[in-house]
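Lab notebook, design round three. We kept the backbone fixed and only want residue identities now. Task for the bench partner: fill in a sequence for the structure below.
Input structure tokens:
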């Protein structure tokens, strides 16, 4: 429930998240791989038990306000989840047959089972949301005239970019826009593809396309991308999964033309390039001078990017758009230049990911709630932040302070021979209970802070002596931080990590802790004879619409 409260889709994100949190994980400072935060969220979601009774229970007392949500993706659903319990009458419009947006149409079932998505979407719809599925909103002006107090636009980035090269028109029958093709597969309009398939693009959509093609009859599926392999936009684990399924990725290949023979697509020609960087690190792809490379193909999937499209929004309503076709927004409130219209998700600031859409949905819900109360949208509630002491006894803490030395555990997968013959068979099996526990034990407890009270310290240096990483020093203070860093017991070389510096102690020294190498093991607090050190858990809860807005 803690996960659901902020992330809204723990089962979905535990399988498909882009993992923006993991690069910040401090475990990655001491070894190559961070804690598998994403996959641990799945463990929590898959073993949640019966949680429906713990969620807000309708019907909710009406506040007399009515909100329209255009699009049924993660941003719109987050707004619905946050506002429905506050008494808003929520109407959700989507042209698909069910909620979920691109989570349903563009994430293949072998990565995200339909049952998981349905459960998490229905948790929200069951809050009393008025759904209008299979309904395409063709005019914002018409919607504005229907008495809604506010309108939220969460229509995603629905237009896949095309690649207009020689032969495009003649080979049209066998050249497909990636996101449209994935959608056709998801809704079972497309059941097969040719044996030889080229996938153009280096992002996660390209990885989904090539892996789906393998399951629909593609025997020789190849990904060709302009950039070097290391600079592809696809997540490293997505590339690994594609290659595990015998899909080669050919980098530094620039598409030049679709080759048509006897009126039919026969393949594509590519120019080989190499990456050259100037003194500022700017990349340029320079032809190698080698002959063009011909790659055979029965079908080509174009996955070279997505764009926003708002053909249903009239341009005389007062909503301004920038040169990229995106709405001009306040990036804090997500309010457009037409005050009662708000945007979020890919429809707001361009294509990102599910967790970003959720975060923007939370912020837009706050703005809509404030707007409907005629309050200042910039006077926003603060997140809930607190510190709790973890001390339970002289040598007991309310968290597991022992440091595990285990390397990151590998998520087990179903057998390839099975998954490649069933596009709905989930590939990743997830951690079992024991492995999930062991992986969680790799956490270095970043949420537990070492709190130092300088006027309790007797400067016995016991904490400095017992620290296993020598991150604590008692030294004369310095005017320049760069000098202070060099005077520590072990010089603090990570300039991106702030130092923890105490007030002046009785001897004129200061306590300095290099947070970069602290294990949060609690030994300093255990050893301290005066309780100058304490281990306190930091709690942060994302700001949401609700009582704090009232």
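Proposed sequence:
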């Amino acid at each position: 429930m803690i996960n659901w409260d902020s992330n809204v889709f723990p089962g979905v994100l535990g399988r498909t998240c882009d993992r923006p949190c993991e690069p910040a994980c401090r475990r990655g400072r001491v070894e190559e791989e961070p804690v598998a935060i994403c996959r641990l969220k799945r463990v929590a979601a898959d073993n949640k038990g019966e949680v429906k009774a713990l969620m807000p229970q309708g019907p909710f007392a009406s506040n007399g306000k009515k909100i329209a949500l255009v699009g049924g993706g993660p941003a719109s659903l987050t707004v619905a989840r946050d506002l429905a319990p506050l008494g808003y009458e929520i109407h959700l419009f989507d042209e698909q047959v069910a909620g979920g947006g691109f989570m349903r149409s563009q994430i293949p079932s072998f990565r995200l089972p339909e049952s998981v998505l349905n459960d998490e979407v229905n948790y929200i719809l069951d809050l009393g949301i008025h759904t209008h599925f299979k309904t395409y909103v063709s005019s914002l002006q018409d919607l504005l005239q229907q008495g809604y107090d506010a309108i939220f636009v969460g229509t995603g980035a629905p237009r896949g970019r095309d690649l207009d090269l020689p032969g495009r028109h003649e080979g049209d029958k066998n050249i497909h826009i990636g996101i449209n093709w994935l959608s056709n597969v998801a809704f079972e309009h497309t059941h097969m593809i040719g044996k030889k398939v080229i996938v153009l693009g280096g992002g996660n959509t390209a990885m989904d396309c090539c892996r789906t093609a393998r399951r629909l009859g593609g025997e020789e599926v190849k990904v060709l991308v302009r950039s070097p392999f290391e600079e592809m936009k696809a997540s490293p684990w997505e590339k690994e999964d594609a290659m595990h399924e015998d899909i080669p990725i050919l980098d530094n290949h620039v598409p030049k033309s679709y080759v048509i023979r006897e009126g039919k697509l026969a393949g594509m020609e590519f120019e080989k390039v190499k990456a050259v960087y100037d003194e500022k690190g700017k990349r340029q792809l320079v032809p190698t001078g080698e002959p063009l490379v011909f790659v055979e193909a029965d079908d080509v999937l174009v996955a070279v990017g997505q764009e926003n499209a708002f053909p249903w929004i009239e341009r005389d309503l007062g909503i301004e758009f920038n040169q990229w076709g995106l709405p001009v927004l306040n990036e804090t409130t997500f309010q457009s230049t037409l005050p009662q219209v708000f945007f979020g998700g890919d429809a707001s600031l361009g294509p990102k990911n599910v967790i970003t859409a959720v975060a923007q949905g939370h912020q837009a819900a706050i703005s809509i709630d404030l707007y409907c109360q005629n309050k200042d949208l910039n006077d926003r509630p603060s997140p809930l932040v607190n510190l709790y002491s973890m001390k339970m006894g002289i040598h007991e803490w309310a968290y597991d302070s022992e440091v595990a030395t285990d390397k990151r555990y590998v998520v087990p997968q179903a057998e390839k021979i099975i998954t490649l013959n069933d596009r709905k068979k989930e590939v990743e099996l997830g951690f079992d209970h024991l492995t999930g526990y062991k992986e969680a034990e790799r956490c270095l407890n970043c949420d537990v802070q070492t709190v130092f009270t300088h006027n309790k310290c007797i400067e016995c240096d016991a904490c400095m002596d017992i620290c296993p990483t020598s991150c604590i020093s008692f030294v004369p203070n310095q005017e320049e931080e760069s000098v202070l860093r060099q005077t520590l017991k072990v010089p603090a070389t990570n300039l991106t990590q702030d130092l923890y510096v105490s007030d002046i102690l009785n001897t004129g020294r200061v306590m300095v802790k290099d947070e970069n190498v602290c294990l949060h093991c609690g030994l300093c607090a255990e050893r301290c004879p005066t309780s100058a050190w304490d281990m306190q858990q930091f709690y942060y809860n994302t700001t949401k619409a609700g009582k704090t807005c009232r």
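Keep this in mind before ordering anything: The chain has 18 helices and 22 strands.
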